Amino acid sequence: MSIFVNGDTRLLVQGITGRDGSFHAKQMLAYGTRIVAGVTPGKGGQTFEGTVPVFNTVAEAVGATHANASVIYVPAAFAASAIFEAADAGLPLIVCITEGVPVLDMTKVMPFVRERGARLIGPNCPGLISPGEAKVGIIPGNICAPGNIGVVSRSGTLTYEIIHQLTTNGYGQSSCVGIGGDPIIGTNFIDCLTAFEADPKTTAVVLIGEIGGADEQHAAAYVKTKMQKPVVGFIAGQTAPPGRRMGHAGAIISGAGATAADKMQALEEAGISVMKRPADVVPLLRTRLGIT
Amino acid sequence: MNLHEYQAREILRRHAIPVPEGEVVTTPAAAKAAAQRLGGRVVVKAQVHAGGRGKAGGVKLAQDPAEAEAVAGTILGMTIKGLPVQKVLVVPAADIASESYVGIIVDRGTQRPVLMVSAAGGIDIEEVAAQTPEKIHRLAVDPRYGLLAHQALALGFALYADVAQARAAADIMQKLYRAAYDVGASLAEINPLVTTPEGKVVALDAKIVVDDNELDRRPEVAALRDTAGEAPSEVQAREAGLTFIKLEGSVGCCVNGAGLAMATMDLVKYYGGSPANFLDIGGSSNPQKVVNALKIITSDPAVRAILFNIFGGITRCDDVANGIVQATAQFPLTVPIVIRLTGTNEQEAVRILTTAGFSALTDMDEAVKQAVAAAGRAA
Fold first, then answer.
1. For residue B8, is it within any domain?
2. B294-306 residue pLDDT tens
3. Could you give the angle at the alpha carbon of A233 between the alpha carbons of A229 and A237, nearest 5°?
4. Tell me, what CATH number does B363's domain have?
5. Are residues B44 and B117 in the same domain?
6. What digits encode the pLDDT tens for the residues A110-141?
7. From CA A39, how far away is CA B214, in angstroms rounded?
8. pLDDT at site B284
9. Is the backbone peptide bond immediately before B113 cis, with ω within 30 degrees of 0?
10. d(C-alpha A83, C-alpha A88), whole Å
11. Of A77, A239, A255, which is closest to B269 when you measure between CB atoms?
């Protein structure tokens, strides 16, 4: 088992003929993900890599292939439109990799996505992977291994670092979800924690947060009151100065509770074991899982 | 991107929000002339991207044009929070009957633009929020319909009992809401929104922060950037497509990915060092980006050691290795360098680096420890 994507995922790639889209579509195919369609307006009728039909619109692609998830690699200026289109076509899962989507665009996207009953992951995220089943996005497949640890993160390469620690120490993953570093994102920590708590395969969860916002505090409250499974956490940005955007649009210390220290304290108080550095992940997991 | 007060005022004016007259000048003589045109008694305000201008002495009242010249002379020579004051805004000294606050911010929790108003204006709204949160009225706006007239009027009545003033404030709020979407603002605020002795409602000071992600599609807003008000190294980095923030420490960091960059800085601190910067070379790196990154890092005299931490995914380790070799061929390093890379094309990268006489590590903790030790020795 896994969360959000698995061997039954029938994936559609928006922007499949673009530079990033084609590169990552090939990687996903190589990983064994079932890509059933691609969409690039004006390239309908073509075939990608000899196997994947390309359509002009998402609605056409869904009608012809019964795709049930989409991943978006279009440039930032067109990303909001691509999410609208995917939700309008009735896709239940939409993963937006694109970085740099204006936050005011997202204020309009979110009510639309909710009304259509879709789940959006991202934007500005590395996507997700259920090792051995499906990879949707850009997380390198070779650093993952099938297993029982759930990983949820606001980051990209930092997530890879921690997955790498897990895999090389013999801890495979049920699913790894990168929820994205923007202020407005479709899926938050609590959505993922809820899914991991319900997933029979997952035995423990690693949560990777960072400065900015209060999503980690909300997650902590959820873990304290609703979760049985052990959670290990990390917060990036202990040395970040206030008021400066640390790369991610969402990673900025503004207002109360947004510092790394505030978040680490909230996690500790909720019974989450907090790493001081990425290399602590395996020792802490061992302790929480009662492995000596 | 932060806009200056005078730029924010101009945006409000274009959206038909009542804003007092004012002139931006760069010399004391021009301030004097502006004061003459504006009626003699004026306020001279430093235009810098720093909070607490008033407390730092960057906002001063002048009774006549001669005093405006003198005051402008003082302010134009000042440095506020490290930023030299190069422009001042001269506005007529206003008689004020009351001061309020009106702001729009994109709220992460509700995922909507939230209008905040308070009759306790003129002071830092975060102070009001911390000490008397009941004095702030909030409304999460449904962006599909915008700020509706009755919603704005209800907020107007939260500020003023007088219906004419409440309507005037409501009209300003609706215009501010449209202005925020027009320029792509993540924050737009009027503080204070004042009433004059005649009962008029006027925006006296404005602050707008534009979402950096809006700038590509709004060149007219991007053109408002004042690079003179930023650290030169940060301007250089932005033009090279890198995300860079200068800090106070001695370990220069070059990392791919914002989260890993922050975690690397934290680990430098954990092992007793202090990071000189945040630098994210981004996802699809090419060797030239690495060359540019090294140029920026090495131009900081406080840097005593350089640390590369690359987790290859989209970023190819061999690209980074080639960049390091090219850069050091162009300008030899005068400080030690510690390189950690793992992931995509790691073996090729190690081959390139060792051939060129560098050593490469694969463990993040080990690399950070070595960089901190090297910075300590070099100090």
1. no
2. 999 999 999 999 9
3. 165
4. 3.40.50.261
5. no
6. 999 999 999 999 999 999 999 999 999 999 99
7. 25
8. 63
9. no
10. 8
11. A239
Q: What is the pTM of this model?
A: 0.93
The answer to whether the beta carbons of residues B72 and B59 sit under 8 Å apart is: no
How close A75 comes to chain B (CA, Å)?
Answer: 11
Tokens standing for A249? Answer: 């649009």
For the stretch A15-72, pLDDT in tens is 999 988 999 999 999 999 999 999 999 999 999 999 999 999 999 999 999 999 999 9
Is A157 within 8 Å of B313 when comparing Cβ atoms?
A: yes
Tell me the nearest-neighbour CA distance from B233 into chain A, angstroms.
15
Per-residue pLDDT band for A96 (boundaries 50, 70, 90) equals very high
Question: Which of the following is catalytic: B69, B99, B189, B346?
Answer: B189
User: Is the domain of A69 the same as that of A143?
Assistant: no
Contact A162/A138 with Cβ under 8 angstroms? Answer: no
Q: Domain with B121 in it: what CATH number? A: 3.30.470.20
Kindly state whether residue B15 falls inside one of the protein's structural domains. no
Evaluate whether B313 touches A139 at the Cβ level (below 8 Å).
yes
**A96 vs A107: CA distance, rounded Å:** 15
Q: Is A129 a member of any domain?
A: no
Segment B113-117 mean pLDDT: 96
Q: Does residue B196 form part of some domain?
A: yes
A248 is catalytic: yes
Q: Is the pLDDT of residue B216 over 60?
A: yes
Contact A250 B108 (CB under 8 A): yes
Domain enclosing residue A94, as ranges: 11-121
Answer yes or no: do A114 and A162 share one domain: no
Contacts A108 to B, Cβ<8 Å: 143-144
Per-residue b or e along B214-244, where b marks 16 or more CB atoms closer than 10 Å to that residue's CB: bbeebeebeebbbeebeeebbebbeebebbb
CB contact under 8 A, A251 and B267: no
Nearest to A107 among B106, B245, B268 (CB): B106
Q: Which of B207, B262, B341 to mutate to test the interface with A (most CBs of A within 10 A)?
A: B262
Classify residue B14: in a domain, yes or no.
no
Same domain, B107 and B75: no
| ipTM for the predicted complex | 0.94
Phi, psi dihedral angles at A246 (to 5 degrees): -90, 75
User: Is B215 in the A-facing interface, judged by CB distances under 8 Å?
Assistant: no
Does B56 share its domain with B105?
no
Q: Is B231 on the interface with A (CB under 8 A)?
A: no
Contact B106 A126 (CB under 8 A): no
Instruction: Give the CATH number of the domain where residue A155 resides.
Output: 3.40.50.261
Predicted confidence (pLDDT) per residue in A155-196, tens digit: 999 999 999 999 999 999 999 999 999 999 999 999 999 999
B101 noted as active-site residue: yes
**Active-site residue (options: B101, B160, B177, B346):** B101
Q: Distance of alpha carbon A129 from its chain centroid, rounded?
A: 8
Instruction: Compare CB distances from B258 to A102, A161, A246 and report the shortest one's residue.
Output: A246
Number of domains in chain A: 2
Judgement on whether residues B203 and B240 belong to the same structural domain of the protein: no
Which residue from A minimizes the CA distance to B125? A255
Give the pLDDT confidence of A52-61 residue by residue, as tens digits. 999 999 999 9
Q: Are residues B177 and B306 in the same domain?
A: no
